[in-house]
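Support case: magnesium ion complex. Customer-provided input:
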Amino acid sequence: MRTLAIVNQKGGCGKTTTAVNLAGALAAEARVLLVDMDPQAHATLALGFDPEALEENLYEVLVEPVESSAAGRLAQVIRPWSDRLHVAPSGIVLSALEQKLTGEHAERRTERLEAALLTVRDDYDFVLIDCPPNVGVLTFNALRAAREVVVPLEPSDFAIHGVQKLLETIALLSDRIGHEVAVRILPTLYDGRTRYARDTLAEIRSLFGDLCFDTVIRSNVKLREAARRGQPIGSFTRTANGSLDYAALALEIALAGPSAPIDEELATESQGQEREVVVRFCDAGATDVRIAGDFNGWVPDKDVRSLVRADGADRVWTKILNLPPGTYHYRYVVDGKWREDPDNPHAVPGPVGGRNSVLVVP
Ligand SMILES: Nc1ncnc2c1ncn2[C@@H]1O[C@H](COP(=O)(O)OP(=O)(O)O)[C@@H](O)[C@H]1O
Ligand SMILES: [Mg+2]
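Agent response - structure generated as follows:
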């Protein structure tokens, strides 16, 4: 069981949207528990459950001392959204927890979620914890329970500053609790049409380097629509950017994360199962367009066919790649010059300067 906390003290940066839709995307292949630690209960609502109508929620689990968690209280409050996606719901009463537990030793206040999750560790491959927009007792419980932290970050200067502070807090905490947490930054609410967003994303990548996911979550109104319908975006539309981006994130996490049973399953299942991917490059002036990436040892056109002009569209170059599922980096070579894919918002700084575009094969 891999446990990931979705954390950022800033509200509105896409924590709940990420928790719900990443859970939905992972549930295509794995058993997923979404833990709603925010008293506002937005994740519970986004899966179509009315927090007011539920008789029990996480409060009942967390208010009990750690020794009582063995009684299996968590399993009783969990609700199924589908076979493989379950939710531990929240409610406004959760906001009273902090006060309720004052007077207790800090250790005992913050290890309750971890203890409760131990009781369901054979039932799930992934646990995603949606955190409230502050760093109080609920977020501390989440950080203690998780070995991985995802920090959604909207590309803006203030948000970057806030995240640097948050990373310090998490580092301090992991020292105190004696376990490492692997933190990754997820750019969200990205609007590639504005220069400001493009520049800020580049700054995030240069500041945080490998801590940053390759995947970028673009702004997409379908994500709001899905939340209103009470379902993860993947079960509502498969073609919207929001759906593609969270599927890419799920794959990046499943393939690149710490070893877990799901990794082996995915790896063996995907062996030999190549997918056809069509890449397109648009440039009226180009006379020779090639592609190179980690799928062909960065040798332009090795093992892959040259890009050809598509019929009837003299400025569009296309090529079919046959690749096993995974995340790949590539660039075009246009009339001898290396270029990033201008139509792909997913790009990372290359090891020798410039930027490599990122291709995710689901
Ligand atoms: N990628 C996105 N595209 C469009 N709207 C988004 C996206 N991510 C979040 N939103 C919207 O922004 C608002 C805040 O997002 P939310 O996930 O609730 O943030 P948080 O949980 O961090 O407060 C919500 O209305 C949500 O629907
Ligand atoms: Mg939220």
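The mean pLDDT is 87.

Case will auto-close in a few days if no follow-up is received.
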